[in-house]
Amino acid sequence: MSPRQGPTLRELCVQALSSVEHGYDLLAPKFDHTPFRTPDSILRATTDALAELGPFERGLDVCCGTGAGMVVLRSLCQRSTGVDFSAGMLDRARDAHREATWVRADARALPFAGGFDLAVTFGAMGHFLPAERPALFEGVYRALRPGGLFAFPVGTLPPPTSVAYWGTLGFDVAMRVRNAVWRPPFVMYYRTNQRPAVLSDLTTAGFSASTVALPDGGISYQLVLARKPVTPARSS
Question: Where is the Methyltransferase domain positioned along the sequence (predicted)?
Fold first, then answer.
């Protein structure tokens, strides 16, 4: 990713002072040249891990952005669909992956029912407050067929002695201050989606959830694997 092609500091500031939807509309043309795009190494590692759990016919990329997750779905699924609420991001994704189907919708109210074998999401969990996760997970649960799989990578919290620990803490504090004094809010936090809470919410939504290690160049990631039961344990 070339910084020359990425957004300027002024553009990032304008984006950060916008709503999440409008901010990503603005960022879309240069998003693939920012550090916010999921690294190819994570996409490859996810593909390798999921390849052993298939086969999958239809795949869904939730909060697809510019379509990075399509690299994973294209390798594993016969048909793929991406959903996002940013029209700008969907335009970029459509240009890059014309073979896929694209739907504009809020991930907290997904318009699908029982049609997908595999759902993935990359880099989007920080955009959902803990109180919003149940709606997200319940929507994905509905979108999957019985026995379908929901998978996404999550980073483990770095140790307090690391620069990353204080960097993510500082970012989250800055975002909380920004959202306390500026409207509309821009929801993006690194520390609100820790693994125990995420797994608990997935279980409440009806999934059988676990994690596997997903190494990436020394940074510790876990791949969350949430399976919808063939025979639901609760009414959906």
Answer: 60-148
207: enclosing H helix or E strand: none
The length of the chain is: 236
Pairing state between β 144-155 and 116-120: parallel
**b/e code 153-183 from CB counts within 10 Å (16+ = b):** bbbebbeeeeeeeeebeeebeebeeeeeeee
**Model confidence pLDDT, tens digit, residues 142-157:** 999 999 999 999 887 7
Are residues 118 and 149 in contact, defined by beta-carbon separation less than 8 angstroms?
A: yes
Stretch 193-201: mean pLDDT:
91
d(CA 182, CA 44): 38
* Average pLDDT value for residue range 165-189: 88
Q: How sure is the predictor about 219, in pLDDT bands with cuts at 50, 70 and 90?
A: low
Give pLDDT, residue 233.
Answer: 57
CATH number of 40-157+194-227: 3.40.50.150
If one counts every other C-beta atom within 10 angstroms of the C-beta of residue 189, the result is 19
Asked if pLDDT for residue 139 goes beyond 90, the answer is yes
Instruction: Report phi then psi at 45, rounded to 5.
Output: -65, -40
Maximum Cα–Cα distance across the chain: 52
pLDDT at 2: 45
What are the beta bridge partners of residue 80?
59
Half-sphere exposure of 14 (CA within 13 A, CB side): 10
CA nearest to 154, candidates 224, 225, 201, 71: 224
Tokens coding 87: 């029209």
**Which single residue is written with the structure tokens 């697809």?**
64
